[in-house]
Design goal:
Radius of gyration: 23 Å
CATH topology of the domain at 73-170: T-fold
Structural class: alpha+beta
Order of helices and strands: HEEHHEHHHEEHEEEEEEEEHEEEEEHH
Number of strands: 18
CATH class of the domain at 73-170: Mainly Alpha
CATH superfamily of the domain at 73-170: ApbE-like superfamily
Shape: globular
Strand content: 15-25%
């Protein structure tokens, strides 16, 4: 009892319990949603002004790189059949240059010109999904290739060597938009944040409490597979388990290998990448889906990337990972939490499909958690929120659920706020760009 009272007294005296509420912004963008959480914002922040600035920057990214806007820069470039230099904005050139760099590092696995093949297999436009004729695949292969595109930064311009070459930056533009908003928040002297656009995330500096930001990585079987603790870094995930078709007993993935023209055989269910730049993490996650687990691990180690592959077999997840994803510890509910700054390849980790409620928490930790939550609720007159993905969270030092920042990009997320945000974004999809 003495220990409990001492712990209770420490929690009651903790200044974190009196911390200012985080600032939250959200809304629809690019056919999905954006969500921003800022820790300990300045007292003089004009929230309406900040929201307007965020939306203006997102609209600008859309104006540059949305293939659904006929007047966008990328649409005008695609409409042109000229093989001369085509002037573009510095931002558009920057994103294209990074796409070209990753294309070269992956031996062509990442290729933003691959749209003709994606459409041919029925994953892009309204065509029926099915196996194309060999001649059709050959024709599409002859119409693609980032090697046919040149980029320069001064003055910013693009140049294609084939007049019909089409560029689609949907696999990198959302990550770039996250970086843009992160830079905006930093410039506004709001350095501690999480920016989430459609499941692509970037964190700022640590919270006022000193805690890192905690982000959830979805399990292909539902719920959370991993919680990652990050500061000044990004995490992006690409998944295969929501977009495929089956014919004659064979499952065809939407991950098309630009070097063969065919869907990748036995691709991972999902790939997550941690990188300083969300733009780069976004592109690398897509590239790793095409490379597959074995080749992807090799490329990740060569380029010193933090990558996590999730494979599903008989309702069991097998994980292989490198770098920051490698060192983990298991929580009471089976979810893994990363605990180290670096690590080597992690071979063959397995976990059950869906997380379960953590009844098995040690008694003293349970009592400390309940005490902290009760104090935080009484002092702030707030209800204790539910959790996402089946996790009934142990509170962080803010007295809040680790899952309040759940970024699972799916309608089934148990976090009511995130689910409603996704549903609202879907309503706006007609007028927004679903890809850029």
């Amino acid at each position: 009892m003495r220990l409990l009272l001492l712990t209770f007294g420490i929690l009651a005296a903790s200044p974190v319990l009196f911390a200012q509420d985080p600032l939250k912004l959200d809304g629809p963008t690019m056919g999905t949603y954006f969500s921003i959480v800022v820790d300990s914002p300045r007292d003089d922040v004009n929230v309406a002004d900040l929201q307007a600035k965020v939306q203006a920057w997102l609209a600008e990214v859309n104006r540059q790189m949305s293939t659904w806007d006929d007047s966008s820069e990328i649409s005008k470039f695609n409409q042109s059949t000229s093989t001369d230099w085509f002037a573009v904005s510095a931002e558009f050139a920057q994103v294209t240059a990074e796409a070209k760099r990753i294309h070269e590092l992956t031996g062509g696995a990442f290729d933003p010109t691959v749209a003709p093949l994606v459409d041919l297999w029925g994953f892009g436009d309204d065509r029926q999904q099915g196996i194309p004729m060999a001649a059709e695949i050959s024709d599409a292969l002859n119409a693609i290739g980032m090697q046919h595109l040149s980029v320069r930064s001064d003055p910013p311009a693009l140049k294609k060597s084939m007049g019909g070459l089409q560029l689609n930056l949907s696999a990198i533009a959302k990550g770039y938009a996250v970086d843009v908003i992160a830079e905006l928040l930093t410039a506004e002297k709001l350095p501690s944040f999480v920016v989430d656009i459609g499941g692509e995330n970037r964190t700022g500096t640590a919270k006022a409490s000193g805690d890192k930001w905690k982000l959830g990585v979805e399990s292909p079987l539902g719920g959370l597979h991993r919680i990652v603790k990050l500061t000044q870094s990004s995490v992006a995930t690409s998944g295969d388990y929501r977009n495929s078709f089956e014919m004659d007993g064979v499952t065809y993935s939407h991950a098309i290998d630009p070097t063969t023209g065919w869907p990748v055989k036995n691709p991972p269910a999902s790939v997550s990448v941690i990188h300083e730049s969300c733009m780069s993490a976004d592109a690398w996650a897509t590239a790793m889906m095409v490379l597959g687990t074995e080749q992807g691990i090799a490329v990740a180690e060569t380029n010193k990337l933090s990558v996590m592959f999730q494979m599903v077999n008989n309702e069991t997840i097998t994980e292989r990972s490198t770098g920051l994803f490698e060192a983990t510890t298991s929580t009471a509910d089976g979810t893994s939490v990363n605990t180290a700054e670096s690590g080597e390849a992690n071979e063959g980790k397995t976990s059950a499909g869906a997380p379960w409620f953590p009844f098995a928490a040690a008694a003293i930790i349970f009592l400390v958690a309940i005490a902290g939550m009760a104090i935080g609720t009484m002092l702030q007159n707030k209800s204790i929120k539910g959790s996402c993905g089946g996790l009934a969270s142990m509170p962080g030092s803010e007295g809040k659920s680790i899952c309040e920042l759940c970024t699972i990009p799916k309608d089934e997320c148990a976090n009511t706020e995130v689910r409603e945000m996704m549903q609202a974004a879907a309503v706006n999809k007609v007028s927004e760009d679903p890809d850029a």
